[in-house]
Write a structure and sequence with these properties.
The chain is mainly alpha-helical. It has helices spanning about 5-20, 30-55, 60-85, 90-120, 125-145, 165-180, 185-195, 195-200, 205-235, 245-255, 260-275, 285-300, and strands at about 155, 235. It has a two-stranded antiparallel ribbon.
Length: about 325
C-alpha cells in the first residue's frame, strides 16, 4: 500500500516527460498558455498549504517567487558558464544544470521563508497578513537596488530552459508533496491549527513549529515556480513580483476553496485562462475580469470548486 502513491508519482512524471515530446505538435500559443497554467498551479497549491490547510493568511508569496527566480537565474547566468562554457554543454548537462538552478532557487526561497516565518508566525490573522505583505515589498525593493542583478531593470538573457515537461513535473511534485504532507502526522497538526489554534496548543502541539514548516515548504515550491518562470520569460524584473502578483495567487486559493487542492488547481487554470478568453475585448478586460471575480465570490463565497459543507474558520 505504501508504494502506490510513489507508483502514481512515477507514472505522472513519466506522462509529463512523454507529453513534452508530444508538445512539438501543439500550437505555440496553446503551449504558452499551458506553461503559464502549470506555473500558476504550483504557486496556488503551495500557498494553499499555508492559507488553506494551516489556516494562516500570507500575502507575500510573490516575494518567495522572486527569490527563487533570481536565485535560479543567478546559477544559470553566472555559475553555469564557468562550469560548462558559454554554450552550456550537452543537453544532459543543461538538464542537470537546470535542475540544480531550480533546486538552488527553491532552497533560497525556503531559507527566506524560514527567516520570515520564525518571527512572524507567532502572529495570526490580520497581523500575519501585514507582516508577509511587508516582506514581499522589502524583497522587491532589495532586488531593485542590487546592481549586479540588474537593479530595477532586472536580469536579461536567462537561458530558455523551461519546457512543458519541466513545468508539468514541477506541478506534479508540488501536488504530490502537499498531498503526502497533509495526510501525514504534520498534516493532521496543520488541520488542528486551522480549526482551533488555541485548542491545538492546549493539546500539546507546537503550533508555531507547524506553521513554520508549512510556510517553508510553501516558500520552497514558490521558489521553484519562480525559477521556471524566469527561465521561460528569459527576463525578470522586481516589478513582476509585486503586491498584485501575491493577490492574484491568493485569489486562486480563495476561489478554488480553502484547503481544497483540486479546487485550487481548477481555479488556477481558470484565472490563467480567463484573461486569454477576454482578449477580444481587451479594452474592457480588466473591468470584466474584476466583475466576474466579484460575482463569483458573491455567488460562491466558500469557493467556486468547493462542494463540501464544512465551514472554514478562515
Amino acid at each position: 500500500m505504501t508504494t502506490r502513491p510513489h507508483l502514481c508519482l512515477f507514472a505522472a512524471l513519466l506522462a509529463a516527460w512523454g507529453f513534452g515530446h508530444f508538445s512539438e505538435h501543439i500550437n505555440l500559443y496553446h503551449l504558452d498558455v499551458l506553461i503559464k497554467v502549470g506555473i500558476a498551479v504550483i504557486l496556488a497549491v503551495s500557498l494553499n498549504l499555508v492559507n488553506g490547510h494551516t489556516g494562516q493568511f500570507s500575502l507575500g508569496h510573490a516575494g518567495f517567487m522572486a527569490v527563487g527566480a533570481y536565485g535560479s537565474a543567478t546559477v544559470s547566468l553566472f555559475v553555469a558558464p564557468k562550469l560548462f562554457g558559454a554554450d552550456g554543454g550537452s543537453a544532459l548537462a543543461q538538464g542537470a544544470l537546470f535542475f540544480v538552478a531550480l533546486l538552488a532557487g527553491g532552497l533560497a526561497a525556503a531559507l527566506a521563508g524560514l527567516l520570515v516565518g520564525v518571527p512572524s508566525l507567532r502572529l495570526r490573522g490580520d497581523y500575519l497578513a501585514i507582516v508577509t505583505l511587508g516582506f514581499g515589498q522589502i524583497i522587491k525593493v532589495v532586488f531593485e537596488n542590487i546592481e549586479p542583478l540588474g537593479g530595477a531593470l532586472g536580469l536579461n538573457g536567462i537561458p530558455p530552459l523551461t519546457t512543458i515537461s519541466w513545468v508539468l513535473a514541477g506541478a506534479v511534485l508540488t501536488v504530490f508533496t502537499v498531498g503526502c504532507l497533509i495526510n501525514s502526522t504534520y498534516g493532521r497538526g496543520f488541520l488542528a491549527v486551522r480549526d482551533d489554534e488555541v485548542a491545538a496548543a492546549a493539546a500539546g502541539l507546537d503550533t508555531t513549529r507547524l506553521k513554520v514548516v508549512a510556510f517553508v515548504v510553501a516558500a520552497f515550491f514558490a521558489g521553484i515556480a519562480g525559477g521556471l518562470y524566469g527561465h521561460y520569460t528569459l527576463t525578470i524584473t522586481p516589478s513582476g513580483f509585486d503586491f498584485t502578483k501575491s493577490i492574484e495567487i491568493v485569489v486562486m486559493v480563495i476561489l478554488g476553496g480553502m484547503g481544497n487542492t483540486l479546487g485550487v488547481i481548477l481555479a488556477a487554470a481558470l484565472l490563467t485562462l480567463l484573461p486569454e478568453v477576454l482578449r477580444p475585448v481587451a479594452e474592457y478586460r480588466a473591468i470584466l475580469y474584476a466583475a466576474l471575480l466579484i460575482g463569483l465570490m458573491l455567488a460562491r463565497p466558500q469557493g467556486l470548486f468547493n462542494f463540501t459543507r464544512r465551514k472554514s474558520k478562515i
